[in-house]
Amino acid sequence: MRPSPKLFAALYPFGAGAMGVNLFFASLIGSWMGWPVLTPWQSAAGGLVIGLPATYAFACHIMRLMEKAEG
Fold first, then answer.
1. pTM (predicted TM-score)
2. pLDDT by residue (tens digit) across 6-60?
3. Which residues form the domain of 42?
4. Using CB atoms within 10 A as the burial measure, which of 32, 46, 48, 64 is most buried?
């Protein structure tokens, strides 16, 4: 079931923030292999993009839990 736009909008700031932090820390781990470290601004921008599908997946999960609780 598709999540409601209100639920998606409520969860998106948290999903984008989490993805930005994860992206930054992943770039720090990647620096051990010689990859460049992302700046916090680059990580935040990447989090805004990567946060969309992650938030959608989490919102779908929440909807399934809500249906299970009601039924």
1. 0.87
2. 999 999 999 999 999 999 999 999 999 999 999 999 999 999 999 999 999 999 9
3. 5-70
4. 46
